From TrEMBL:
Protein name, as recorded: ABC-type spermidine/putrescine transport system, permease component II
InterPro entries on file: Bact_Polyamine_Transport, MetI-like, MetI-like_sf
Location in or out of the cell: Cell membrane
SUPFAM superfamilies hit by this protein: MetI-like
Residue ranges constituting the ABC transmembrane type-1 domain according to the UniProt record: 65-254
Pfam families documented for this protein: BPD_transp_1
Top-rank lineage group of the source organism: Bacteria
Any one annotated GO CC term: plasma membrane
């Protein structure tokens, strides 16, 4: 007769409980995206595809979503360009206060969003800036920049300088070496940083709430609507973003796996 082993079953049970805990909000959002709701989407009233086929019928959902996407794209482009340049400078060049700059870049990541949002709002108020789309972009670039620098910096530090030296030995100009050797090698890190920045920007509520004025972003719309139950169309948009993120992750993983197999065959 076999003895009962607690350790044998503890890990699977823990894994199931952990995944259940993590996936309950996603499952709830997905199920209620098919709810035939009327005024409130809190109680289940029946199955329907109408929320998926007429996403923009709920007032303000698509406008808020489009605003969040626009802010996310603009903030991501600016933060990625600036962050990449800062990361390259911090790794490749020696200058005064380099260590202090590296340390200070971590401060926005460690500072509570409430403090950042309130501080920025006070600055905008002091200079008389009108709150809206522009102030949100400035705020998002500020907190995305640190994440981009940290991500790209790790990629720059892992590059083999011998590859660039080989390019220079072949009489490549600095611009040619950068665009044909350095940039392609940095591209995976830059893309990862850009995706992270977009996700942070699209999802942000606290800093946006302080600096948005009358501009309605998707997180603000969700917060306002949550009191009476989100419209099913908001659940549809949330799930669409979720499926898009999953598709991107799967595509990147499959592409990396195929590339690794090709390299293994060459070796």
């Amino acid at each position: 007769m076999r003895k009962f082993s607690f350790g044998k079953y503890a890990l699977p049970v823990y894994a199931v409980l952990a995944f259940t805990y993590l996936l309950i909000p996603i499952a709830y959002t997905f199920v209620f995206s098919f709810n035939d709701y009327r005024r409130s989407n809190i109680a289940w009233r029946g199955f329907t595809f109408d929320n998926w086929t007429s996403v923009c019928e709920a007032q303000g959902v698509c406008e808020a979503f489009a605003t969040s996407v626009s802010i996310g794209l603009i903030s991501t482009v600016i933060a990625t360009i600036l962050g990449t340049m800062i990361a390259i400078a911090l790794v490749r060049y020696r200058f005064k206060f380099r260590s202090a700059v590296s340390l200070l870049l971590f401060l926005p990541m460690a500072t509570p969003e409430l403090v950042l949002g309130a501080g920025l709002a006070a600055q905008f108020f002091n200079v008389g800036a009108e709150m809206g789309f522009g102030t949100i972009v400035i705020a998002h670039v500020m907190f995305c920049l640190s994440f981009v620098v940290v991500t790209v910096k790790a990629r720059v530090a892992s590059l083999d300088p011998a590859l660039e030296e080989a390019g220079r030995d072949l009489y490549g100009s600095p611009a040619q070496v950068f665009w044909k050797i350095t940039f392609p090698l940095l591209l995976p890190g830059i893309m990862a940083a850009a995706l992270l920045a977009f996700a942070l920007s699209f999802d942000d509520f606290i800093i946006t709430y302080f600096n948005s004025g009358p501009t309605e972003t998707f997180p603000k719309f969700v917060y306002t609507a949550a009191a009476k139950g989100l419209p099913g169309e908001a659940n549809v948009i949330g799930m669409s973003v979720f499926f898009l993120a999953i598709a991107i992750v799967v595509t990147v993983q499959v592409r990396s796996s195929l590339k690794a197999k090709r390299l293994a065959k060459i070796k």
